[in-house]
Design goal:
Strand order of the largest sheet: 1-2-3-5-6-7-8-11-12-15-16-18-19-20
Radius of gyration: 23 Å
Order of helices and strands: HHHEEEEEEEEEEEEEEEEEEEE
Shape: elongated
Structural class: mainly beta
Strand content: over 45%
Length: 416
């Protein structure tokens, strides 16, 4: 029976595609309880899929053996690049646009009295766009990009005292970026300038998360977690660009492979406080401070590199859970999802990360279907507008960009 449960969880995660641009840190909410609370989970336990990421110290607090998985079965992306779009009409377009099923997190935690060990698999970030950036009588520009990552790691937590616990999770991360750009400018008569650009990048790194938990009273608790800046392991990229003038004909081609690639995942400090009245309600609040860092993702080829400028940034999350029936709990959350990137600056002459400050809210319902199993259904929504650096009219320009994502989440949990 246990083997069947674990196999089902692995199939649930690996049966769909994975997700990482690190432009916004709360675009994907992890776990089932944590997702319903908007990510305000640093000072809480009870979600095997979320604890290793938000605060590894809380994994041991559940006691026993647990396995859970959360999947975003419905992701509706509405992104406009070069056009600010209309936020107010977005709910009317809920059934239109691009849909994709994405796993978010899964974990198996095994308890051994005062300590626990486990395996965590998650997809903390995803970015997608395919469409036109600009279309006029003389200029046509389009962009297709997918930026995704997968984190796999082991977690360990132990009780220090009856009220204190600590833990660590060590993730091995993999990122994949694929971007294709096409830009055509009519210069008069039969003359035109055509630019095609393709960039593919993969990188791997190790990320460590340390956590501490303390139960202050019977109802109040605090938690602190520290995610160290990533330690690069490997990175490789290829870059192709051709610029063709039709009359008189000329063509310039840049084609480079086996380039060294870099991806830096910003460090994070999270502080949480929670008030939990057992079997009645829970209120939690988190603050997450992200470090500032800067780098070029292709240090050997400035012409094809993205100039990444992560700013120091503070996010918050506020969550509430209430027991509505003996077998059901309702969860609500509100959270900020501010951009890790600063505003684009063209003085460097390089493409930069998107700057889109977002806000979001979440809600889900957890139902206990048996003594050792539960099912969660709900979702969350994030939206914001900002700026993006894109190639249009044969030059890099700062264009408006809006982003809205509706996500339907389904999760299941087992105790064994």
């Amino acid at each position: 029976m246990r083997r069947r449960i674990l196999l089902s969880l692995l199939l649930l995660v690996w049966g769909t595609s994975s997700q990482a641009a690190y432009s916004n840190s709360s675009s994907v909410l992890l776990g089932e309880k944590a997702a319903g609370l908007g990510g305000a989970f640093t000072a809480l336990s009870g979600d095997a899929a979320a604890s290793p990421y938000y605060n590894p110290a809380t994994s041991v607090l559940q006691g026993g053996n647990h396995a859970s998985a959360a999947v975003n079965v419905y992701n509706k992306f509405e992104t406009n690049v070069g056009d600010a779009g209309d936020f107010t009409a977005a709910p009317q377009r809920l059934n239109r646009g691009f849909f994709r099923s994405l796993p978010s997190s899964s974990a198996t935690i095994l308890g051994f009295g005062s300590f626990s060990v486990g395996l965590s698999i998650l997809v903390p970030d995803y970015d997608f766009y395919s469409g036109q950036i600009k279309g006029t009588g003389t200029t046509t520009s389009s962009l297709s990009t997918v930026d995704e990552s997968l984190w796999v790691g082991g977690t360990f937590s132990t009780k220090l005292t009856e009220r204190d616990a600590t833990g660590i999770t060590l993730y091995y991360t993999a990122r994949n970026l694929s971007r294709s750009v096409s830009d055509r400018v009519e210069t008069g008569g039969t003359s035109a300038v055509l630019t095609d650009e393709e960039k593919n990048l993969t990188s791997n790194a190790v990320v460590a998360i340390l956590g501490f938990y303390r139960k202050l009273t019977e109802t109040w608790s605090v938690g602190v977690s520290y995610r160290a800046p990533s330690l690069p392991i490997a990175g490789e990229a290829s870059y192709y660009k051709s610029v063709t003038t039709t009359s008189p004909y000329s063509s310039t081609v840049t084609n480079r492979a086996n380039l060294r690639a870099i991806t830096k995942i910003p460090g994070r400090v999270a502080i949480g406080i929670a008030r939990e009245v057992k079997n009645i309600n829970t209120l939690s609040f988190d603050l997450q401070l992200y470090e500032g860092t800067s780098y070029s993702d292709l240090p050997e080829l400035a012409a094809g590199a993205d100039d990444i400028q992560h700013r120091q940034m503070l996010n918050f999350a506020l969550g509430y859970e209430a027991k509505v029936r003996e077998w059901a709990r309702l969860r609500l959350g509100v959270f900020s999802n501010l951009s890790n990137n600063g505003r684009p600056d063209l003085s460097q002459g390089q493409r930069q990360g998107d700057y889109i400050d977002q806000m979001g809210f979440s809600a889900n319902l957890n139902m206990k279907t048996a003594t050792a199993t539960s099912f969660t259904f709900g979702g969350y929504y994030t939206a914001g507008d900002g700026e993006s650096t894109q190639l249009t009219g044969q030059t890099l320009q700062i264009v408006p960009k809006t982003k809205q994502t509706f996500t339907m989440l389904v999760a299941t949990g087992f105790s064994f």
